[in-house]
Amino acid sequence: MRSRMRLPVIFVLLASPLASAQNGAAPSAGASLVSAHTSPGPSTRLVARVNGAPLTDLDLLREMYTIFPYAKQHNGSIPKAMEADIRQGALKMIEFEELVYQEAKRRQMSVAPVRLAAAEKQLHQRFETEQQYQRYFQAEAGGSEQVLRAKIRRSLLIDDLLQAEVNGKSAVTSAEARSFYEQNPQRFRFPETYALQTITVLPPKPAQGAESNPPTPEQMKQMRARAESALQQAKATKNYEEFGLLAEKISDDDYRVMMGDHRAVKVADLPPAILAAVTKMQPGQISDLLQVDGAYTIVRLNAHNASRLQTFSEAQELLRSRLQRSKTDKLRHELDARLRRNAKIEEL
Fold first, then answer.
1. String of DSSP letters for 81-98
2. 0.85 cut: is pTM over it?
3. 96 plus 244 within the same structural domain
4. CATH of the domain at 247
5. Is position 259 within any domain?
6. In 3D, which of 38, 46, 47, 48 has the Cα closest to residue 18?
7. What domain count does the chain have?
8. Which residues in the chain show pLDDT less than 70?
9. Distance CA 151, CA 125 (A)
10. How many angstroms separate the Cα of 106 from the Cα of each of 48, 115, 157, 163, 286?
């Protein structure tokens, strides 16, 4: 089952083509509320039953737009290469949410009238114009306040059960994060890196039809002359900016568009010739000509960062977020498996 954090329904207004499409208009920024029950009608067909409860193609399409919110930018369509996977993920999700809803009803959970009224008001306020809201209201609820409230109540019950069984149990304490940090130190080690810029002189391109022919001695001589001229100019630069501007002007490699800047490169990713040079250099120094893969390269060393262990203080925020996400996914999968165990699910 594809896992995602489910926001409270009243704050999830998708750029869904559904409401406008049902009114005969082109897809536009509308509002789709929930993967809610829609009684099968002329414009819907069943895609699944969950313990007898119907799920329609409109429920499925809403969820597909949740997974792929960029459909609005594609005139409401989903790329063919992605459609099958997105559909399958959406189908599993609407089945899961229906199972959660049924479990909430089995537990006799309820929504206080004042909360339901507040949710309905907040939903209404999310629309920019009354016309947009009415278009949504007609498409999603057939103009019935009772149907709309049932949809909102359903979604709030889903949220409440997920809060009880997943979100409320997925918090990660500082002590748990520290324990993980201490047991997995290598995950928090920054590798040794060298921050550098380069100017590269490549061999001349072979003539068309002569791709397999190596450069001639005369071409290699010209290449060497270009490289020595580049080195002389590079040695005359005084800082990062001057070297970078020169790289933009004369370098042959793709890094020229970034002022020759490779940022921080791991030791393991450096060619041997460059590694041997930079280990003997100080930040701000410029190398002599280095031969790398048939090209001449000039390196400016900007910084050397030794390998070090990230402190717990540095890692804590991101670590707790990742651990919580992992815990949330695990709890959702466990809940899904538990609810499916004795359920009757028919995919049509």
1. HHHHHHHHHHHHHHHHHH
2. no
3. no
4. 3.10.50.40
5. yes
6. 38
7. 2
8. 1-43, 72-76, 206-212
9. 17
10. 21, 21, 11, 16, 73
